[in-house]
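Structure request: Cytochrome P450, Gigaspora rosea.
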Amino acid sequence: MTYWLYLIFIIFNLLFYFICRVNKPPKELDFIPTVSFFKDILILLRNGGQLETQNLFRECDPNKIGLVKHYFFGWTIHITNIEYAKLFLSESAHNIPKTEMPPKTPLSIFYGKKGILVSNGDRWMQQRKIASLAFNRTLRPDMVVECTNEFITLLNKWTDTPIDILSLSKRLTIQILGKLAFAYDMKALDSLEEQPYFLDIYNKIFQHVNNPFFMIFPFLNLLALKRNIEFSSLIKEFNKFILKMIEQRRLELSKEKNENENTDLLSGLLEAANHEEYNYTNKELRDHLVNYLIAGYDTTSTSISIILYYLAKYPDIQKKARDEVIKVLGSASNFITSENLKDLKYLTAIIMESLRLYPPAALLVYRKPTKPFNLSENITIPKGISVTVNFWQIHRNPDIWNDADKFIPERFINPTKEIENNWIPFSIGPRNCLGQNFSMMEQKVVIALTLLNFEMSFPPNAKHLDEIPLTKNFLLQPKKIDLIFSKLK
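Returned structure:
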């Protein structure tokens, strides 16, 4: 069996080598170092993590040019220099539109064709305008407090028991997002013994979307395989759930008298749907909601998981953060406001350092310049080649960050201009993340209330790792890590 696996691997590598030779990069890009295609494929096939991939990218640019090129069914330039990144990210969205996803793949089917994460041009600008107003309405710490108190009530039943922190964080963030964005109770914090219906479907879909073998060979998605039939069934169930949520909110809005009380994202989208300028169909509304779910759910749950991991790893940091929370908020969690959250300086530094080391997405969504793009007098990116900004590499540049791979929250207490300018986990420019303020507020409330109620630690004999093990997903996610939550004495 091993012999045949090696033979298949060799044949596939020879096939890819031939493809790479046929699809040579433009000559003007010869000076840009190239990521080893074979090493990258090997990491993907053995389901290696994002850390291995990023180390490969770092190693291939020893001269620190700030650019690397990578082949994966087409050439992509990764920008790893902050100044180049700023130039690129400040360019008009019309000049560097997002690269279209391959049709009829699990990724494109799940994301849809109309959502903000995949749209370009006027459609993207229209959605950005609507979403900006809607996100401003959802900045409500009181609702996050309400959901976090549900979370604490649930955890009180599972104290001193190892719990997978990503699974736990996902339950909390989907509950918050459900209520604040969609005015819908996801029932995610009722119990740890049963997986909520929505999360069960969502997680299964993501397993299909991120299947490395089907990413390498996308034609397999067109075959009548058991895996493809299962994915199709899951998508139907998922869409049915989303449309049910839309119809329920539409009915509620028709009965409500005071529209000013509607602070959720979905009500804003439904209001826009009735406007003749937008006239959204249910399919378009579905795509919008899915895009917001992906952007606001997986990213924040990962960030909360990583912060909890570091608090458990460094008890002195945990104690210092808890002392600050008690000083600022006392024990009365119901009095959390946007104003007193600003006084949590050290907790904010912990969150910022966590986002530096593990930004929500390692890479910017790929874009293709519609005309040659000048990064400097000597460097021009040709029209039509895919470009991305590698946030991971920028955040771990040893020329900018002392002890770049170490968790040091103090670097964000009275940070220098250089540090502020190099911290871009939510991107920058006209396409920066709309949910940045929402995410930061959510993380502060969740971590503050958790610190007020529990002490976090690792189970006995748990490995204390230098780096958090990550999956290969585009959106960073830690692999299974258990923590113990003990009631404060």
